[in-house]
Amino acid sequence: MTITVRFAPSPTGQIHIGNTRTALFNWLFALQNNGRFILRFDDTDRERSKTEYADQIETDLAWLGVSPHFVCRQSDRFALYEQAVEKLKAAGVLYPCYDTAEELERRRKIRLTRRLPPVYGREALKLTEEERNALEAEGRKPHWRFLLPNFDTDPFSPQRTEVHWDDIVRGPQTVDLASMSDPVLVREDGSFLYTLPSVVDDIDLGITHVIRGDDHVTNTGAQIALFRALGAVPPEFGHHNLLTTVSGEGLSKRTGALSVRSLREDGIEPMAVASLAVLIGTSASVEACRTMNELAARFDPSTSSKSSAKFDPAELLVLSRAIVQAKSFDEVSAQLKELGIDGPKAEAFWNAVRGNIERLTDTAVWWTVVEQGPVEVELSDDDRAFVKAAADLLPPEPWDHGTWKAWTGAVKTASGRKGRELFHPLRQALTGRDSGPELAELLPLIGREGAVNRLTRA
């Protein structure tokens, strides 16, 4: 049996870091087991689902390093759902209901006052054919509920019916079907709610493991019952803890909070996103993994906490910086070229500046400093006279990393300056910055002509 998992986003907005956690849990599980990863778009909501969102999700996953083995859309699979509906109707476990929202709310309140569970009382099962016809004559259209197998012979006398599974993440789990209402599978307009298409697709696509957020734990019991009603063996389930913002708010595709697209556009490294999305909220230490295989080696879904985890973008920047600064020139040369950083100086430039950048895009700023010099220099009159005099002491080329030490030694002897009084004006005149990469590495890249021009015009 080939391990097969799925990531099933609704293309109704941009995926955020919380969605990414689910996608990566599934992707890493597939990697560990030499399995298959299916991307399934749950786009039965025709009004809110957009092609551009689906395209964006594929782009975001590819950027993270997730490559689905198969992609499908629920909007192409309605015939399968209709077949399942007919099968459930024929088995007598899908029944029509005509209750309005107001009627359901009134009954719920009555049950609460009687200290009864606020579940649906299956009143629709008591309707005669004549009563159903009368309701439809009034213009009512039925929604369809799945009759949970939580009774012996009388559906109006539900009894404790436990569904058990060994959760990949949370360990042994139990749900009592008697504590639940019969779930609605088909709306009045004939459209399908999440549960039916999801189960039908999992059966048809051969999904062996369903790994998702722990907000789905309770309805897993009903879904297992639906798998069995359709004659299928349920897959194994895993429910990981959810991520929230630092303030504890839930993440939303509609608001774009911490969307993968925004993180990518902000220059964050994809493996920083993946590392934090997977390791946060687990017992593992949160460290930057350089590759997906390295992250897969550290991934253990069973170490996830039972409580939600707060996602701090500041931690993301720390991981991203660590990954960027550890990269070799060969790893970044193509991206540097896209930023206009190319030629014989490119590799030496990268080695000089990488310890001082947070994002790869920061290199463009330092390339401008090296190639063009500072736009503005803040120096006192004394410091301006000092750097102009220092220009006369620049040694002839060729230059290397030792040139800076030799030159500043000569300047120190001639001027009597030392420490910050010596080095700060020279750095300002050469780069326009108070801090940055080692000037021993930058000076040979600037070159003698460039250095003379900067020092004399400061």
Automatic annotation (TrEMBL):
Q: Which GO terms describe its cellular component?
A: cytoplasm
Q: Which Pfam families match?
A: Anticodon_2, tRNA-synt_1c
Which residues, by range, are in coiled-coil regions? none
Sorted keywords for this record are: Aminoacyl-tRNA synthetase, ATP-binding, Cytoplasm, Ligase, Nucleotide-binding, Protein biosynthesis
Domain Glutamyl/glutaminyl-tRNA synthetase class Ib catalytic: from-to ranges: 3-316
In terms of InterPro entries, this protein maps to: aa-tRNA-synth_I_cd-bd (IPR045462), aa-tRNA-synth_I_codon-bd_sub2 (IPR020751), aa-tRNA-synth_I_CS (IPR001412), aa_tRNA-synth_I_cd-bd_sf (IPR008925), Glu-tRNA-ligase_bac/mito (IPR004527), Glu/Gln-tRNA-synth (IPR000924), Glu/Gln-tRNA-synth_Ib_cat-dom (IPR020058), GluQ/Sye (IPR049940)
Q: Where in the cell is it found?
A: Cytoplasm
A GO molecular function assigned to this protein is: glutamate-tRNA ligase activity
Aminoacyl-tRNA synthetase class I anticodon-binding domain location is: 344-458
Q: Motif 'KMSKS' region in this chain: where? A: 250-254
Give, as one word, the top-level EC class.
Answer: ligase
Q: Reaction(s) catalyzed by this protein?
A: tRNA(Glu) + L-glutamate + ATP = L-glutamyl-tRNA(Glu) + AMP + diphosphate
Among SUPFAM superfamilies, the record links this protein to: An anticodon-binding domain of class I aminoacyl-tRNA synthetases, Nucleotidylyl transferase
Where is ATP annotated to bind? Answer: K253
Subunit composition?
Answer: Monomer.
Describe the family membership recorded for this protein in Swiss-Prot or TrEMBL.
Belongs to the class-I aminoacyl-tRNA synthetase family. Glutamate--tRNA ligase type 1 subfamily.
Role summary: Catalyzes the attachment of glutamate to tRNA(Glu) in a two-step reaction: glutamate is first activated by ATP to form Glu-AMP and then transferred to the acceptor end of tRNA(Glu).
Task: Provide the protein name.
Answer: Glutamate--tRNA ligase
The uppermost taxa in this organism's lineage are:
Bacteria, Pseudomonadati, Pseudomonadota, Alphaproteobacteria, Hyphomicrobiales
